TrEMBL record:
Alphabetical keyword list: ATP-binding, Kinase, Nucleotide-binding, Transferase
Protein name (Swiss-Prot/TrEMBL): Gluconokinase
E.C. number: 2.7.1.12
A cellular component term, taken from the record's GO annotations: cytoplasm
Pathway the protein acts in: Carbohydrate acid metabolism
PANTHER family per UniProt: GLUCONOKINASE-RELATED (PTHR43442:SF3)
GO molecular function: ATP binding; gluconokinase activity
Entry-linked SUPFAM superfamilies: P-loop containing nucleoside triphosphate hydrolases
One of the GO BP terms on file: carbohydrate metabolic process
NCBIfam families in UniProt: therm_gnt_kin (TIGR01313)
CDD domains: GntK (cd02021)
Reactions it catalyzes: D-gluconate + ATP = 6-phospho-D-gluconate + ADP + H(+)
Length: 168
């Protein structure tokens, strides 16, 4: 989880690969209308995100109920209530969050520096205005998102071995 540009897709891919888990890209489940809004620089509202979060919660629920590898889901999950929706999936405590913590300047730089992505750089400030940091919630690992990818993946793998010990 985290703001646009924090590295959700990059970390998600590497982590899923390292763990042999299935990767789901949360952005692939946005409504077309939501994608158009973000392309044109209009921030999503709670209402825009509501059906999307329902879909992602159902996806997690069904993945948790299916025997097999675990699941890595990339999702901005900017607000506490969004995360609480996702936490409804599976038995209590099954869903954990890795918060990729990045400052505004670096996020903007990263979003401006990539091409072919639907997300408008104009929206980065709004991502930070919307973000409710997850420190203090159950089963959350906070990681400095400027660390090398391999280091973020290693820290997450080691946290997954003892998630409650490192919960903030
Ligand atoms: N740990 C890192 N160190 C340096 N660059 C990184 C790191 N993680 C991601 N990046 C770079 O930052 C940019 C944004 O990364 P990425 O697309 O993974 O973020 P994201 O959170 O999925 O963004 P969005 O939600 O907007 O799709 C990419 O160019 C990526 O290569
Ligand atoms: O909740 C949101 O506002 C969205 O999920 C965004 O965070 C983007 O989809 C994502 O970061 C892609 O750039």
């Amino acid at each position: 989880m985290g703001v646009s540009g924090c590295g959700k897709s990059s970390v998600g891919q590497s982590l899923a690969h390292a763990l042999g888990w299935t990767l789901h890209e949360g952005d692939a489940y946005h409504a077309e209308e939501s994608i158009r809004k973000m392309q044109s620089g209009t921030p999503l509202t709670d209402e825009d995100r509501s059906g999307w979060l329902d879909t992602l919660t159902r996806l997690l629920d069904s993945a948790i109920a299916t025997p097999g590898p675990g699941v890595v889901l990339t999702c901005s999950a900017l607000k506490r209530k969004y995360r609480d929706r996702l936490r409804d999936a599976g038995p209590s405590g099954t869903v954990g969050f890795v918060f990729l913590d990045l400052g505004y300047d670096t996020a903007l730089q990263r979003v401006q520096g990539r091409s072919g992505h639907f997300f408008s750089p104009e929206l980065v400030a709004n991502q930070f205005a919307t973000l409710e940091r997850p420190e203090g919630e159950g089963t959350v690992l906070c990681v400095d998102a400027t660390l090398p990818l391999t280091e973020i993946v290693q820290r997450t793998q080691s946290w997954l071995g003892r998630p409650h010990a490192l919960t903030t």
